[in-house]
Specification:
heterotrimer; B: 785 residues; seven-stranded mixed beta sheet; five-stranded mixed beta sheet; 28 helices; C: 440 residues; alpha/beta; Rossmann fold; Ubiquitin-like (UB roll); de novo design (two linked rop proteins); four-stranded parallel beta sheet; four-stranded mixed beta sheet; 41% helix; globular; disordered C terminus; binds flavin mononucleotide; binds iron/sulfur cluster; binds FE2/S2 (inorganic) cluster
Amino acid sequence: MKFSEEFEQRFAEMVTHYPTKRSALVPTLLYAQDEVGFLSDEVISELASRLALTELEVRNVISYYSMLTTKPRGKFNVQVCTNIACMLRGGEELLHHCSKKLGIGHKGTTPDGMFTLEEVECIGACSWAPAVQVNYDFHENLTTEKMDKVLDEYKKRGTQ
Amino acid sequence: MPDVNITVDGKKVTAPAGTLLIEACKSVGIEVPSFCYYPNLSLQGACRMCLVKIEKMPKLQTACTTVIGEGMIVTTDSDEIRQARKGMVELLLGNHPLDCPVCDAGGECELQDMTFSYGAAESKYIEPKNHRDEQQWSPVVYFDRPRCILCYRCVRVCGEAMDVWALGVQNRGVSSIIAPNKEDHLECEECGMCIDICPVGALTSGAYRYKTRPWEMKHVGTTCTHCADGCKTTLGVRRADAGMEIVRGDNRDKSGINNDFLCIKGRYAFDFAENPERIMTPLIRRDGRLTPATWEEAFALIGRTFREIVDTHGGSAIGVVGSNRITNEEAYLLQKFARVVLDTNNIDHHRTADFPAFAAALSGKPGLTASMRDVYNAAAMLLIGNDPTNRHPLLAYQIRNNVRLHRAKLHIVNSQEIKLRRQATSFAAIPAGGENVLAAFLAGDDAQAESLASGGMNRDAWLSWRDKLHAEPNLVVIFGSEVHGQGISALVKFAAALQGAKLICLGDYANSRGAADMGLYPDLLPGYLPIGDPGKFHEEWSAMPTAQGLDLRGMVQSAQARNLRALYVVGANPIGRFEIDPYVFSDSFVVVQEMFLTETAAIADVVLPAANAYEKAGTFTNTCGDLQQVKKAGDKTETKSDFEMIVRIADAMGFDIRHLVPFGRGVRADMGQSRGAQSGEADRHAVWLQANNLEPKLSPFDPMAILDEIQRLVPGYDVSRINLLAGNDEHTRLSACGPGAMHDPELIVPADDTLFTSGTLGRYSKTLNSVIENRQVPESEVAAD
Amino acid sequence: MAELVSHPDEIKVVTRRFGMGATNIDRYLELDGYKAVQKALAMPPDDVINLVKNSGLRGRGGAGFNTGMKWSFVPKQSPKPKYVLCNGDESEPGTCKDRLIFEHDPHSVIEGVMIAAIAVQSHAGYIYIRGEYRYLSVIMQKALQDAYARGFLGKNIFGSGYDLDIYWHGGAGAYEVGEESALMESLEGKRGIPRIRPPFPAVVGLWGGPTVINNAETLASVPHIILGGAEWYASLGTPKNGGTRLFCLSGHLNRPGVYELPMGYNLKKMIYEVGGGIPNGRSLKAVVPGGSSTPALKPEEIDVAMDFDALMKAGSMLGSGGVVVLDDTTCMVKFALRTIKFYQHESCGWCIPCREGTDWLKKTLTRFHQGAGLMKDIDNIQYLSENMLGRTFCPLGDAAAMPTIAFVKKWRKEFEDHLEGRPCPFEKEGAIEQLPVLSH
Ligand SMILES: Cc1cc2nc3c(=O)[nH]c(=O)nc-3n(C[C@H](O)[C@H](O)[C@H](O)COP(=O)(O)O)c2cc1C
Ligand code: SF4
Ligand code: FES
């Protein structure tokens, strides 16, 4: 199992930060997922052996955290917040808009593998609602028009 | 620990500091309900059923996580509390399928009981329940997710108590689920502890599910017939076409030395009894082929032939092979039969440990043998050789949990990296075969340190390691068959010099220790007395030969020399086990008492269908020397116990069986005389006694009559009969025996069974075979998981 | 990223360096950075604790426990190492303040952790930032590197002979992990299941060692208290509620945003003056004063001082400072549903009342809002919530139950208006059918 140099450096340093190896698990999983796209069986067994855990233990942890996934996702994960603050300012309309525009539902992925759509809980942008996170980037004070621009932006980025 | 005083529902309660409130309540008979709490497993506080009111605390508190404090004033029952518990049950039922009528746990379900006590039957919610299909996780483990109430007992018992860690919790919130270690299936030791501990019907066993309703079963607590640890297993039996069928095994009542532990064999491997290949009628060889015959024909033929051979060629022309799986009474009876009826000492059995050497070393040194219970309480343990996880599951469990719950020290010396090293304080590797050398070193022979030094540790390391052991109080020394002869004397010498040290000698099979104690040896009488010893046996028995007889090897040679005219095999398979050329016995008249057509039975002239240990009464002695009762649970009317068959053969030989079985002697059953009854009455009373497992010593087939004799004549077996009959284990005293003997270690052949094999019984157990077929990984990997 | 707002009534303490490029360590130093920690190093640890205690600083994470007091529970002698853990998991709906602190003034959090560590004589600290805040983790990791490069962290900090290490740690999406004991589990690489208490973290925490756990804003306030003094800080707020706090104004407002206002600031003023009032001339229906876990207030209840004690008296809680404003077009049933959906999705599932309770509330409210509600549902919703209240393994259950009880009690009429198959009075045609439902 091959990870990037950057990942290896971060991992090597991170495990020295804790009295127990396994403490590095959660952030390590997220960085691994960012590289591979999802947490494949291969990644799981690799990290399990590195942190002296059973694969079961690793899966138990993965399945707990909502950002971690064992299934492939689109290039861009469009996470629309519909929690109270965003809901009051049109979060749900935004979600439906994306759903129509992309032709996919919650946790669906476009056939071209470009976008995955996800309805998510509060992402800490309440005062700038409604807000969307595409992968790790925040887009705030959105309207359906602005949302279109955002999506088109990513589509361009994804295709070139 | 100092005591703490609290008040529960007005009652004064005193308990040691550190006691959990829920246990303190139990100690005065106040049951606080709980799902997730389970003694000796880690605390969860998850089910919230045990909420109680503690004065000066605003919220209700969980009794399962609260440690009692001086002066605590507790209320365990009030409207608020009942409402809280009712609410919990209602919430559980919200998503729980109400398929109780077809649920295995129906009638034995803790959720049903709670619903009953808190009257939460009416469902408040009309929402559809979250349904999931049932999954099969292994040949023995099924999981019905919607029934699961997430008490996490299974996860903890598998990890903490079994050290297998094959179950986990996945997802979160309402989609939380118990998950097996290999995505959709389990790879584990298949002990079934998770099923047994499940308070509802979420985990069910392939062996039992949908077979019967709990209340349709009769429950018989007996001793497991597989390994030599002697777990108590409570067998659920129900009527079958001919006799009684066993449908379940567990020990939920925690009434045995194994508490609620059972391994896969004790829990599920009773199914060999139902194997279609089981012999159900006597077989006689007629023109070369084994053909069905009546019992009368069979006994007549055997009686006639044996008589003839004894009269014309003498007893030395007959060999007898006993078994490690027959009861003490049968083993005793068999050697008595050989000696007084067949007039021969040509008797032996499959030896799996050097018990005679152990007896020799202990002779006259009382208090040096440990019971299975001692293992759980010892301050320190030394394990030499063997792999208990595979060959002595209960012993391994006792060791693990002694370490986990009592922080006992565990020192291991082994040529393999056995799984128990995970609990070990120290693990020393030695070359295979070095066990006797180690024993000598322990006994003070420093020169041996050199030869040990090869593996990992150097001379000084070994010396300081030994010093550590010398400092351990109440050390229990457990050794496998790798240690024998002088090695055993050395270990006993070592232990005798320590403060409160005790030993355990590990043999295989359910009654290998009993077979040895009962004198299935050509040179030793019961209690390891020399054959020539002019003692009680000679006084009490009619004439018997005093010259040492042939051991198994000797019998084979004698047969090769065409001198062995007959071979009588009871519950053993020497030809299969020792790969003896079957033609050796082509001139001998071979009689075999068996359940199945083994390699040995296949060459027999007469095969008698035998009952197994689950189908008869008597006693077993486990490898530690703990004597326990064996009770009749299953029944196949077409078979007979080895006991009865031996007696019938003696009778067919024209021997006065009163000289074989002293029935009518010793403690008498009430024959109704006390009620001034007529004889007809008496018979019915006898029937009643049988039915209640009280054996009236009226018949020559009464094992209790022999138990009387054993307790009278076999040194160390004079234990409390009351306790024994009450279902307790009684530790026998090997030190009272002896002088024992030094045998050729070549004759010792360990069974090398794994968790999933069990000699002949295992070969015919559907459950064990299906597990073996199902495995994708070698045992070692599972163990090391 | 998130743009800043300001209002004349603001008192900028924690936010004083916002927008000044203080992520740059030199800039931070120019703006009195790392002065407080050096001052603290020169003080006896107990004086630091007392100073913070007297400042009346109370936890900004939600519970509002006196911070100095919490520190004082840490045993002086401990066989196991002591730790300081900064809670930056910020996930309470309506709350987006820690995010701004990490973005604009990461060193103030580091400095706060350092001072807490010195106060309890700990030599290791962790700053836990929720996984979604990846860009803040990048900023924080850089800030930590710079601090190490200057010798502010590591061995013999500021030549004082005191060793102190501080590390970043990241989450991966779980609200419950914000709960202090679950936070420790998560940091130890496990599922975010809370721990049995007692023992409390201050005694038995991370890896069994005594652990101080504080919210990021709480810790970011500490350096200012050390420099400005306890009296000054206390005087900014109301009795027992020292200083200022970041209020996250959101919902139906003309000027939503994060404002730093003194403790005890009037809620009505906060909405109508600071927040600029309700848009499009609509009127107020409800206010969630401290994040989704706090019971909503009716318009007649909002003339209240925003401090822990006053709101407690008003039957709610100050919580995490997330002020969510609802105008008269909002359907309270739908709002209740969306709130409970969150807790159902975030419940760790450990204990029965929370796991099953949130699920059934979600199911019932969904059906109810879709017009299939029954009269008995209204009472059942309250009955169920009351069965959860105070009986769950951790406070998440209460956080789900308390607001729900308030919704039913205070807006019962709106629930009744949904009965007998009547469509939701506030929904546009057809909108309900496509109401998204979070699936797991
Ligand atoms: C379900 C739940 C979620 C919580 N989430 C957070 C959080 O995201 N951030 C936080 O600082 N505190 C959170 N808390 C409060 C913490 O448990 C803890 O009280 C707080 O971090 C202590 O710091 P403080 O005293 O500075 O407030 C949460 C509590 C609960 C019960
Ligand atoms: S450990 Fe031995 S005695 Fe106990 S159940 Fe298993 S096989 Fe039977
Ligand atoms: S038994 Fe106490 S919470 Fe389950």
